[in-house]
Amino acid sequence: MAKVNVFFPCCMDMFSPSVPNSVIAVLERLGDEVIYNAEQTCCGRRFYQTGELELAKQLAEKLILEYDLKFPMVVPTTSCVGYIKNYFKELLENSAEVNMLRTFTQNIYELCYYIVNVKGIEKLRFV
């Protein structure tokens, strides 16, 4: 059984609150042990996009520090994964430990990408 972190973005929590339970159920059915941090709130993408860089930086640091980096992180949205992979380095270049940041950004996956390209599953059938 593989362990995976899951992160549910703030917009999903607000507008689609049933999605997190469904994502956890899918990952568990695929044999993963899911690690969910109920205290996590936001990756900071919306703040970054509106120019609130200090707040975006604080949320980025919080996200990295609150997860076990030994395990991949699965996120059910491409927008947050893309933001994290493309902008965390810029935001945290002078504050985060480089290896920690690299490990985090290289080990975060959008849900479908994780299922197909990491787990190697091309067909799902849940009854």
Question: What would a concise description of this structure say?
Answer:
By secondary structure, the chain is α/β, with parallel strands linked by helices.
Can you give keywords for this protein?
alpha/beta; four-stranded parallel beta sheet; 7 helices; single chain; 127 residues
How does this model look, in words?
This protein has helices at 10-15, 19-29, 45-49, 53-65, 78-92, 98-106, 111-118, and strands at residues 2-6, 32-36, 73-75, 108-110. It is α/β, with parallel strands linked by helices and 127 residues long. It has one domain (2-118). Strands 2-1-3-4 form a four-stranded parallel β-sheet. The chain is globular, with a radius of gyration of 15 Å.
Assembly type: single chain
- Give the domain tally: 1
Distance between the termini: 21 Å
Helices and strands, in N-to-C order?
EHHEHHEHHEH
Secondary-structure content class: alpha/beta
General shape: globular
SS field, number of helical segments: 7
| DSSP helix fraction | 40-55%
Across the major sheet, the strand order is 2-1-3-4
Average pLDDT confidence is 89
Name the beta content range: 5-15%
Described by strand count, sense and barrel closure, the largest sheet is:
4 strands, parallel
Low-confidence blocks of residues:
none
Count of β-strands: 4
The value of Rg in angstroms is 15 Å
